[in-house]
Amino acid sequence: MYKKEGGIKMQANFNLELPIEIENELRNRIIEIVKNTIGTIKHDSSFPEYMDKKQCAEYLNISRSTFDKWLKTQDIPFVLINGSYRFKRSEIDKFMVEKQK
Fold it and tell me: Helix-turn-helix domain location, by residue (predicted)?
């Protein structure tokens, strides 16, 4: 760990003894976070950058009819080209994060 004080980088070294139960819980939580992150990366990379309605519904893990309802009632970002809807994956992710608030 580096601390920056007055333009100088200082390294802080310390040892912390944890009870085995806490150490195991911490290890399990880190493993869970890593697994979830890997799962998210695999999930995201299996979808194209621009998705059609069917792909976007699958990406969101909702039915096509639910997606169509959301499209009518929510501000889902899209691009309309010659009557074809396209949904940018990163914009859909942003939309979902905003809806969590």
Answer: 50-96
Could you report the per-residue pLDDT of 64-87, keeping only the tens digit for each? Answer: 999 999 999 999 999 999 999 999
* Whether 51 contacts 43, CB under 8 Å: no
Domain identity same for 65 and 34: no
Are 24 and 62 contained in the same domain? Answer: no
Q: Evaluate whether residue 10 is within a structural domain.
A: no
Instruction: Give the DSSP letter of residue 46.
Output: T
Instruction: Compute the distance between CA of residue 58 and CA of residue 8 in angstroms, rounded to an integer.
Output: 50
| pLDDT tens string 81-90 | 999 999 999 9
**Residues 23, 57 share a domain:** no
Is there a single domain that holds both residue 34 and residue 75? no
d(CA 24, CA 22): 5
Q: Distance between CA 9 and CA 3 in Å, rounded?
A: 6
